[in-house]
Design a protein that fits this description.
The complex is a heterodimer of chains A (330) and B (94). With 330 residues, chain A is mostly helical. Chain A contains twelve helices and two strands, in the order ααααααααααββαα. Chain A has helices at residues 21-31, 44-63, 65-69, 78-103, 109-117, 135-155, 161-189, 193-212, 222-229, 237-255, 280-290, 294-329, and strands at residues 265-267, 272-274. A two-stranded antiparallel sheet of chain A has the order 1-2. With 94 residues, chain B is of the alpha+beta class. Helices cover 18% and strands 21% of the residues of chain B. Chain B has helices at 31-42, 67-71, and strands at 7-13, 21-27, 50-55. The radius of gyration of chain B is 21 Å and the shape is elongated. The chains are: A mainly alpha (330), B alpha+beta (94). The interface between A and B is medium-sized, with 30 and 19 residues. The complex binds fe (ii) ion (3 copies). One fe (ii) ion (FE2) binds at residues 91, 145, 148, 174, 177 of chain A.
């Protein structure tokens, strides 16, 4: 998802009997649906895993601005431009809500930024694909934000209070994102032949990368089991992917577009669509920094950080000077 | 990166006359910048009519370990609740 392949302690999940009293009390609180707050005791693994997960989620929101930012100056109308700008600005906000949730766990904003810029921390694989036409703005909102919503809605019930509250804010704003994307797709799909082709091409290119957003099957993963016990992961990757496919296929039909999967079929018995897995080799390759736009994305973030240094330093120096002057006058 | 802007906690009062409520935090060089950033980060959809920002380091908080001693004294004072008293219906609304 926005946080993919989050490793926890790597050990098998302890039973309540194996835990010392402090850890047992912690787990029982989570089992009972209680929230963990910043100053509460928590196992080191819980803290570290959450920093990784929330940090990666935040980075994804921030880097996720780039593929859409690419089209702001070329939006077809002033209204579309204003909408896209507002959408991208929301994503910046989502990144900031999440960074501040991560900071309550004792990591600094600059540490997180440094680890993104050096490539040590990851962001979602989806943002390493290019946005080639205006229809991609439709596909991104419809599919990418749609997949994100699927993952983020259950996370509103996650055990860590600040994370859960950030997710509530984010979910409130996401539905506009998906709807504006679908609105673009409707317009394109019912437009000229060239526009319809553009819409189909965008769906072709974004379908499998969107399925990859949920990460590979993790039914047998130790990390996943621990993260689910801690309620920082609420569903398996396969569950969410299936839910996404079931929701999206009828929407594609509504648009009169074809999902690029010859094996896609409604399975009456299961009550779900059967579908083809994405190419997981490609996924790992992209996650390891070899996606079509990986280099460009990281360069853009590094450039923004470096170019902004004098502004950050200047404002800080000004604030300090003002404070000193005020103190002297008192 | 050694020059990180300080962290500010943000409180916002919504339209409907309720108290300011904590909404999150952000970084800014000074209070003025923090209010401007809070406007952009936390009120993009008219969520508020008033913003407070407080430097996070200036907040004193109760410790979760002291939950017991801190709140227990009020546990046994059930007479503070109106339901403690049996008032006959004949006495009318009260
Ligand atoms: Fe977002
Ligand atoms: Fe997003
Ligand atoms: Fe979004």
């Amino acid at each position: 998802m926005y946080a993919q392949m989050i490793k926890s302690t790597g050990k098998t999940v302890k039973s309540l009997d194996e835990m010392d009293p402090q850890e047992r009390a912690f787990q029982e609180r989570i089992d009972a649906g209680g929230k963990i707050e910043p100053r509460d005791w928590m196992p080191e693994g819980y803290r570290k895993t959450l920093i990784r997960q929330i940090g990666q989620h935040a980075h994804s929101e921030i880097v996720g601005q780039l593929p859409e930012g690419n089209w702001i100056t070329r939006a077809p109308t002033l209204e579309r431009k204003a909408i896209l700008l507002a959408k991208v600005q929301d994503e910046a906000g989502h990144g900031l809500y999440l960074y501040c949730a991560a900071e309550t766990l004792g990591v600094s904003r600059d540490d997180l930024t440094r680890d993104l810029l050096s490539g040590k921390m990851k962001y979602s694989s989806i943002f390493n694909y290019p946005t080639l036409t205006w229809a991609d703005m439709g596909a991104v909102g419809w599919l990418v934000d749609g997949a994100a919503i699927m993952n983020q809605v259950p996370l509103q019930r996650t055990s860590y209070g600040p994370y859960a509250r950030a997710m509530v804010r984010i979910c409130k704003e996401e539905s506009f994102h998906q709807r504006q994307g679908f609105d673009i797709m409707m317009k394109m799909a019912s437009g000229t032949e060239a526009q319809r082709k553009m819409a189909q091409d965008a769906l072709n290119r974004f379908w499998y990368p969107s399925l990859m957003m949920f990460g590979p099957s993790d039914e047998n993963s130790v990390h996943s089991a621990q993260n689910m016990a801690w309620k920082i992961k609420m569903n398996t990757n396969d569950e969410l992917r299936q839910k996404f496919v079931d929701q999206t296929v009828p929407q594609a039909e509504y648009l009169g577009l074809t999902v690029p999967d010859a094996h896609l079929k409604w399975n009456e018995e299961r009550g779900h669509y059967d579908f083809s897995e994405p190419d997981w080799e490609e996924f790992f390759d992209v996650l390891n920094g070899n996606g079509p736009c990986s280099k460009e994305r990281l360069e853009a973030r590094n450039k923004a950080w470096d170019d902004g240094a004098w502004v950050r330093d200047g404002l800080m120096a000004h604030a300090e000077k003002k404070k000193a002057r005020k103190l002297a006058a008192e | 990166m050694q020059n990180e802007w300080p962290l500010w906690e943000v409180f916002i009062r919504g339209q409907h006359g309720l108290s300011h409520r904590h909404v999150g935090s952000l970084h800014a060089a000074d209070a003025e910048g923090a209010i401007k950033n809070a406007r952009d980060v936390y009120t993009r959809r008219n969520e508020g009519v008033s913003i407070w920002v407080v430097e996070a380091s200036a907040i004193a908080a109760s410790s979760p370990d002291e939950k017991g001693p801190l709140y227990e004294p009020s546990n046994d004072k059930i007479y503070r609740h109106p339901t403690f008293y049996d008032i006959p219906d004949d006495a009318g609304a009260m």
